[in-house]
Design brief:
5 copies of one chain form a homopentamer. The first copy, chain A, is an all-beta fold and about 100 residues long. The first copy, chain A, has one domain (about 1-85): EutN/Ccml (OB fold (Dihydrolipoamide Acetyltransferase, E2P)), CATH 2.40.50.220. Chain A has no helices and 8 strands. The first copy, chain A, is elongated, with a radius of gyration of 14 Å. At the B-C interface, strand 1, strand 2, strand 3 and strand 4 of B face strand 4, strand 5 and strand 6 of C. Strand 7 (about 85) of chain D pairs antiparallel with strand 1 of chain E, so a sheet runs across the interface.
Chain lengths: ~100, ~100, ~100, ~100, ~100
């Protein structure tokens, strides 16, 4: 899974019918402290995440292993909201 | 999913029979504002997208979860046309 | 799918039995005009492609959705030979 | 599989129910001697690994082929703890 | 598939039970002449390859389409030993 920050959202009226009602959030991959470093991608939210949250995203067919994304044409899903990250015994991120 | 701009199309007479009649569009990945930054790839259109549209593409086995791409040898599908992108509370792209 | 140029072929006597008789071509990813830019990879030919052809390759499990590659340990397949590429309304490649 | 070093862990209260009780470790890809060189990612532990261990991680759908990750929305799993690495006939890493 | 050189091996006592007895070789991706250029990864051997061999590796779920890797948590498999590579009509690699 990637550690990612939710930075925005996407509106799309014309889409595959199976995506109806799905929340499409823009994420950016971060380093191990939660600082955005990577390029943006869009993931379907399944845990009620919001802009500013640090999350975990699962990709590929693994992104379809939730009740919300099963059998849908999506390849990335937000499946956890991160409370804290600990690296080498030190807390490097804590959700405020 | 990747945010991508449709930049062109592909004509291929000799192809896997399951691709007959499929529209093969050339896409380029963009940043979170819709500006093309990445390398090109080809995706099957399922939402009647056209050159100039900003779209979402799903990849890998997820690209086969539409009625049009089911069981076909394609690994990328356009499954949404983007109306707008909002980043950090600001609209950064709106379809004209 | 990737746009790729076929640049060579591979001979391998010792291989998974399911690959017997398969044509293993060396491809290089190209930009949207068909100029090679990426690194090489090997794909199974399913459309009688040859060295010099510009082709489309499908990857991952999608590479196994042809009659020739079904259930075989291959992750890339040539599933179309490109006749022409059109970008922003202009023909940028035409098969000679 | 990637050779990776376990560098930390992740706490996430809000998550897909199928992830309940799973240990989510932060890994960093290494070179062939076990020195971290790549970017971080999160993998589910299935072999009781800990911070500092050098491990192998399997990705994508292969990450779901363990008893612990079956049918769950995870795309990376730690499936082995490395005892030693030998490159060109020389031991370049040995677990202390 | 990737063209890769086998550069070493991995010993791991603690591992997923389905990996028992599997040979885990360290590979490095090469260019089209067989010269190592990429980063290392670990693949399960299914063709009795050894250090120094130039091989083909299949990745992702395709890595599980051999008798040896079926249903196991591995995402890369060596499925062919390369005898020769021919690029633009010239032999650029021949197994010694």
């Amino acid at each position: 899974m990637l550690i990612a920050k939710v930075i925005g959202n996407t509106v799309a009226t014309i889409k595959d019918p199976k995506l109806e009602g799905r929340k499409l959030l823009i994420c950016r991959e971060t380093d191990q402290t939660g600082a955005p470093t990577g390029k943006p991608y869009v993931a379907v939210d399944t845990v009620n995440a919001g802009v500013g949250d640090l999350v975990l995203t699962a990709h590929g067919s693994s992104g379809r292993q939730t009740d919300i994304t099963k059998d849908t044409p999506v390849d990335a899903v937000i499946m956890a909201i991160i409370d804290s990250l600990q690296v080498d015994g030190e807390v490097v991120f804590r959700k405020s």
